[in-house]
């Protein structure tokens, strides 16, 4: 029973709202309650959609396969053998000495040995690297690239309408159909 009473009360409120809206409307349209502006409907004669071009950014990932060269890791044996041979050569050169104006008898065996070891290690490392095997593998390389495109986007409608024998043009953001609501301002003649 309570639900039925609520339904009747809701229907009565809706009927009163509908009745007040029709009582407020005049024979040609709607009247402003303050008497300043009136509204009416005009016949639409033409509607033209208006578009704009919009640029759209789309990130894309592009990948390609590349052949990459890898060298087999070098063994420290070449460096060690080269260092030992260089140290031996440097030691023997340092032992024989050089009897010039600024050198002492007996030479500088320690310095020559170290220098020979360094040069020998460097040469041995280079020989070892030159003889290492090279392997080739295919790897995928990817990068993100922005692609730009444009598309048409509807921004509104140019509407041509006729009211009281005059033709008018306006732009709306909706399609008005076959009639459009217009504001009619009434003022006393001078």
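-> sequence recovered:
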């Amino acid at each position: 029973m309570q639900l039925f009473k609520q339904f009747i009360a809701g229907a009565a409120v809706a009927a009163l709202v509908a009745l007040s809206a029709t009582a407020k409307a005049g024979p040609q349209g709607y009247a402003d309650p303050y008497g300043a502006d009136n509204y009416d409907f005009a016949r639409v004669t033409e509607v033209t959609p208006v578009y704009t071009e919009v640029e759209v950014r789309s990130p894309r990932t592009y990948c390609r396969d590349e052949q990459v060269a890898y060298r087999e890791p070098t063994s420290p044996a070449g460096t060690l053998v080269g260092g030992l041979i260089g140290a031996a050569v440097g030691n023997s050169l340092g032992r024989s000495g050089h009897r010039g104006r600024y050198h002492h008898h007996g030479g500088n065996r320690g310095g020559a040995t170290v220098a020979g070891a360094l040069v020998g290690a460097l040469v041995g490392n280079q020989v070892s690297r030159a003889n290492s095997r090279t392997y080739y593998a295919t790897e995928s390389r990817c990068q993100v690239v922005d692609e730009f495109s444009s598309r048409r986007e509807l921004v509104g409608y140019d509407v041509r309408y006729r009211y009281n024998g005059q033709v008018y043009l306006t732009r709306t953001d909706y399609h008005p159909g076959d009639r459009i609501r217009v504001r009619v301002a009434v003022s006393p003649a001078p």
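Confidence is low (pLDDT under 50) at residues 16-28.
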